[in-house]
Amino acid sequence: MANNKKDQHDVAVAPQSRQLKPFPVQIPEVITSLAYKGGIGKTTLAEELAYVLKAIAVDFDWSKGGLTAGWGYKEEDRIGVPLVEAFANERTPNPLRGGARKPDLIPGHTSFVEYQPGAETVANHLHRWAYELKRRLVVDTHPDGCPATNGAMAAARVVVTPVVLHTREMRALEQLLSEASDYPLLLIPYMVPRTPSQWAINELARLSQEYEVPVGPMVGHYAWIPTRRRRVAICSEPVAKKQAEFVREIKQVAEAVLSYGK
Q1: Does the N-terminal or the C-terminal CB of the chain have fewer CB atoms within 10 Å?
Q2: What is the SS3 assignment for 136?
Q3: Band of the pLDDT at 63, cuts 50, 70, 90?
Q4: DSSP 3
Q5: Which positions ≥6 away from 181 have C-beta within 8 Å?
Q6: Do the beta carbons of residue 143 and residue 150 sit within 8 Å?
Q7: What span, in angstroms and rounded, lies between the C-alpha atoms of 181 and 211?
């Protein structure tokens, strides 16, 4: 980072033990996108849900190829680290405006891996941000059991989990369910091929029943998504003909999120 910019490593996170003032129970909801394995659509799902639900996207995934970079934010061109500073200073960050075709964003940063606070602090701050911004939050998490991910799960009314019906991904899903089925999970079959494996379908049904976790609407496999370069939400208008079915499926997922537990 250039010398005229604030050094990200000079920012310290506030101690987790510090008590925040209480806030009302009725707050806009927090929705968390979670996966124990990368590359299965977690970030795309988070971005599209944030856009459709008119929520603020919050990026806790410090990977350079995540939601923040895809949105168009370049941390090397910016002064300061808004996400880290928001926790350190116990203040609500100002989201970046996405305009008509992108969700508003609280951007992530590669330094968040070092400066993420404890899970309880993360959960408390997410609730406060939603309350003070008067907006839903959709949090994209890093795909491991780090404190920020655990805090985002604890804060969420719904934890949306994309499920790819492949052997290794189903094993990762079973691990997640064995460790986190007490959270409000909603499994979304994702990147589903036209003829999915019957074994995988049966396995998903078994896991859903065994761990008492609901399965939501499916989203199909679209080969054009991974190579897409436009920095706008797929669900934003105008919707191209080839995108229409994906948009319809995402809107069904959004409806399932809103009706979860009701």
Answers
A1: C
A2: coil
A3: confident
A4: T
A5: 211, 212, 213
A6: no
A7: 6
Distance CA 44, CA 39 (A): 10
Among 20, 178, 1, 6, smallest CA distance to 87 is for 20
| Residue among 108, 253, 94, 132 at smallest CA distance from 187 | 253
Instruction: Say if CB 246 and CB 219 are below 8 A apart.
Output: yes
Percent of the chain past pLDDT 70, that is, above it, reads 90
Provide the token pair at 18: 């510090």
Name residue, tokens 């007490």: 182
Strand ordering across the sheet containing 30-33: 104-106, 56-59, 137-140, 30-33, 158-163, 185-189
Q: How far apart are CA 17 and CA 113, in angstroms?
A: 20
The candidate with the shortest Cα–Cα distance to 251, out of 221, 216, 226, is 216
Where is pLDDT greater, at 63 or 258? 258
Do residues 123 and 129 lie in contact, with contact meaning Cβ atoms separated by under 8 Å? no
What is the C-alpha to C-alpha distance for residues 84 and 253, in angstroms, rounded to an integer? Answer: 31
How confident is residue 218, by pLDDT bands cut at 50, 70 and 90?
very high
Question: For the segment 126-162, what is each residue's pLDDT rounded down to a tens digit?
Answer: 999 999 999 999 999 998 889 999 999 999 999 999 9
Give the per-residue pLDDT at 200.
Answer: 95
Report d(CA 68, CA 83) in Å as an integer: 12
Helices (H), ranges, the chain: 42-52, 67-71, 82-88, 112-115, 119-133, 147-155, 167-180, 198-211, 244-259
For residue 99, report the phi and psi dihedrals to the nearest 5 degrees.
75, -155
pLDDT at residue number 79: 85
